[in-house]
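User: Can you predict the 3D structure for this chain?
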Amino acid sequence: MGKRAKRRLRGREKEGAALRLQYPGHEHIRAPLRLALGAPQDMQIIVEFLTRLEEAATDGDRSVLLDLHDTKIIDAVACVMLAAAMQKLDIECGVKVTVRMPRNGSARFALKLFGVTRDGEAVLEEAGGRILRVTSGMLGDPSPGARTFEVARLVEQFVSDQTLADKVHAALNEAADNVLSWAYGANSPPNPSERWWVAGMLTSTRATFIALDHGLGIPATAPQNFGDGLSGLIKTMMQDKEWKPVNLKPTDAQILLTTIRQRRTVSGLDERGKGLSSMIALIDRFSGGFINILSGDALYGYRNFAHTQGDDEYCIPLGFRFPGTLIIWQLEGGPSEESI
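Assistant: Here is the predicted structure, written as structure tokens:
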């Protein structure tokens, strides 16, 4: 071991001793340097980190210190996932996670901006009318439409077309309802642990919306919710080259892509059921944008042609299992010329 490495080790040991004095009886969970998306492995790092946090909080009677001190980058998606994890531990286990805030100013600002506070509280609040902080509800609550309306209101500052803004809200509202039905069951009784989280952000060039649940995931529940309709469509699509070999069980990626393409919901009503499909279609009404859906062992993506090279739609294995469903939807640059 070199001299520099030995100095770092001694410094880390001193820091650990000081933290044990400051936070006696706490299980110390140190966060990665980066909590932000850029590649599928970034999400795996976030999921594994939050899994360690949950295991520490549920293993014995010790309190938990979430140490973000050295974390340099935290994006909006990580803020939502972190707030959700801490709220879940509070509701299900009665564990209040103590947060050691980042020393990096940008990372600390992101946590405060989206309402991830020192005691793990997630607050519904608009910051300057351009940020909707992380907020949540449970399946037994009235429709999350009220919350998605707060998110969709950001679009009204982004486009002058009220009809287009209404379409954004309608798509968000129904997609949230649909995903909750896939996650926890359409007729499931109220349960405080069956929650959803939403957040939104508006800049001068783009509007971003994030929705998360901790349910079973679309690939796990879509086949039973859709019945033979989905199964038959999967079998038909598996005859194509992209779905071979046909003798294997459909993958999560195949089920997720088929569910999205089928353009219906568990409601079975003709006039409803295009929430996710509508979100995808609306991307083309703007000058750019994308949607990513992570559920089970699958990542679905659709991007506007103007901002990509290659396929505009894809659905691939994640290489690990995402705990629930995460939707990241971004609209860029105002309405496209075709939508005006």
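The CA atoms of residues 32 and 71 lie 6 Å apart. The first strand starts at residue 26 and ends at 30.
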